[in-house]
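Example 4.3 (complexes with small molecules)
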Amino acid sequence: MIETIHLTKKYGTFTALDDLNLSIGEGTVFGFVGQNGAGKSTTFQILATLMAPTYGTAYIDGVDVCKEPSQVRRKIGYMPDFFGVYDQFRAEEYLDFYGASYGISARERKELIPQLLELVNLSHKADSYVDILSRGMKQRLCLARSLIHDPKVLILDEPASGLDPRARIEMRGILKELKTMGKTIIISSHILPELAEMCDEIGVIDQGSLKARGTVAEIEKQLQAKRLIQVQIADAIDEARRFFEDQAFVSELVVKDGKLEFLFTGTEDNQIELLRKAVAHHLSLVSFKHVESNIEDVFMEITKGVEDY
Ligand SMILES: Nc1ncnc2c1ncn2[C@@H]1O[C@H](COP(=O)(O)OP(=O)(O)OP(=O)(O)O)[C@@H](O)[C@H]1O
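Answer. The structure with adenosine-5'-triphosphate bound is encoded below.
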């Protein structure tokens, strides 16, 4: 449903997007995660036909964004990261205005707009002026706007940014509902856990290229070649420390809260062997376990070495 082929964008000599190849199936909710400046908005603006790539192209539902932008626009709902709302409108009028600009008849709009307001939990604000709505409400109104022509594909650039936890949860609920309606959604965020919960797949973008892609579990697995192991020993911790320091695939060993922690880069078989040796060495092992990396750790690991700015 969404495909990018060698998508590249240069601003002068600076490469913001570097040979991005992505393929997102119909009905998928795809989370596009990256630090500030990673290239998320650039990708989305190209997908939304608002900017031409320097090289490569993208297809939405089989239609080339560069060659047939107006056809693409009918298929997509785009929510930019910064949006202007027309403050002098009431919420309902605002949607009516956009509906009309998409050529939706007055009769259809009358039926559709209350449904959209309900979907984004704004029915009670239908008559309120846009400028008095809270940030979360404005964001939901903007989402309703992007849905007015019933697009197959939603391109949502940080829809939950700047929202408080409650408003984020509300936004997440709406997105889940859109998923059940069969929409294909690409959504960006720099907050990985937020996306992890509602996305079928995640792509991690960094410095304009895709660093990892898959389900959250798959991405975590990609990094598990380097596992953090924690060992609890009943006594003789110095002896245990010397033992583990001498073993293959063990590095960065530290003692933390009376337990040994180290990185292990061997395979699962290597790990079984290590454990056997530790037992044979008569270490008084209480426990030997992986420290689960949480999704934030995974993100930091993938984008390691890049300054946040
Ligand atoms: N018009 C422009 N001219 C020059 N450089 C630009 C322009 N637009 C974006 N960039 C640069 O391209 C890179 C990617 O920007 P982009 O907005 O796509 O990142 P992003 O991942 O959406 O970041 P954020 O989360 O901060 O919105 C950044 O280094 C940015 O400074």
